[in-house]
Amino acid sequence: MNEQIRAREVRLVGPEGEQVGIVPVERALQLAADVDLDLVEVAPMARPPVCKLMDFGKFKYESALKAREARRNQQQTVIKEMKLRPKIDPHDYETKKGHVVRFLKAGDKVKVTIMFRGREQSRPELGFRLLRRLSEEISELGFVEASPKQDGRNMIMVLAPHRATKAAAVAATAAGAKPAREPREGEGTEVPPAESVETTAQ
User: Fold this and answer.
1) d(CA 48, CA 8)
2) Less crowded by CB within 10 Å, the N or C end of the chain?
């Protein structure tokens, strides 16, 4: 930029995008000074390099605003994890399902892991049955993005929110409201979400 440009001549572009042509760098710097703008190298690898007359401070500010707006509008995919045992207690199952429902309502994907121990590894159908039940019971909020598959001692399934569910979560976030959650049994106020809760009950 400005005196840091080492090329002897540059292809100059005016502040409105008009082509000025190839000029000595000294001439380009003089033109920039005349209109109180900066000479900025926009294509240094070109021969000769391409430079533009611009207000560099304003350019950086506007670029930062655009980047901030792009990050704000970007829908980042978050994957939560929920761990279950194949012989999970009914009450624990309902609690875990409540977490899954809350995650989906928040617009997040959920990786559901069934953990097999000991002789349970010879009964994979228990895991399939549990995952199928869960997917059916949350079908109004989400769908099975990755079908259940065995991974060593674990069985994994990925659930994703429906478009309408995710859109509602984005709208709630934009409005400054927290996405709806399913309260736990016996509680009257919200508690911080647990991204991964492991049940050890047989």
Assistant:
1) 9
2) C
